[in-house]
Amino acid sequence: MNFFKGINELLFPEGGVCLLCNVETDDVDRYICSYCRNNIEYLNREIDLSYLEKTIYSLFYNEFIKEKIYLYKYENYGYLYKPLGEILLQTIYEKNIMKDIDIITYVPIHRRRKAIRGYNQSELIAGYLSKKLDIPISKNNLIRIKWTKPQNKLNRHDRIRNIEGVFKIKDSIEFMDKEILIIDDIITTGSTVSECAKVLLQEGKGRKVYALSITSGMKL
Ligand SMILES: [Zn+2]
């Protein structure tokens, strides 16, 4: 066995390990074992949000996926971007939207929050999709200029007010006349991703904005 490959596999066990439940098994397909696969339910559902051409989320919102997203965002399980990225990739193929996308970006978090967390969860997934689809990614261009209270602690009215004027674009050339895919981890009311789309269209002069997210707690 190649020595460095061996070390890599010790540090980053992938073959034969499910990245969602960490159980060693050969029954793994794209980082996910069949047990975990049975706990996720694809919906690939489209919802209507202002400023967005199309908003799609992949999975039914259940306790299983809720916990994985919590671990990913708040408990340093950064490597979960891989199975979660694969889930979104399947939705992109299913909905056949890759042909429309010129550039991929993500909902930015405040740089102070990124410094504390060590990563932006949506940025990691956007990077994964960019590589897999061979579509360029825009990083650190759509930025968050205000520190906001977590949206999940507010009611609907306050969420919309909380998010106004929070995002800005540093250089609009990158988005001009492009069809943009924005990645968010979870859509709660849609006010965050909708505000991002507004800025991408108005400041960035983008042509169309699509949003993709793992799941949504929205009551339909
Ligand atoms: Zn598993």
TrEMBL record:
Database matches in InterPro entries: ComF/GntX_DNA_util-trans, PRTase-like, PRTase_dom
GO molecular function: glycosyltransferase activity
Domain Phosphoribosyltransferase: residue ranges: 123-204
Entry keyword set: Glycosyltransferase, Transferase
A Pfam family per the record: Pribosyltran
Tagged with keyword Ion transport: no
Sequence similarity: Belongs to the ComF/GntX family.
Protein name: Phosphoribosyltransferase family protein
Organism placement in taxonomy: Bacteria, Bacillati, Bacillota, Tissierellia, Tissierellales
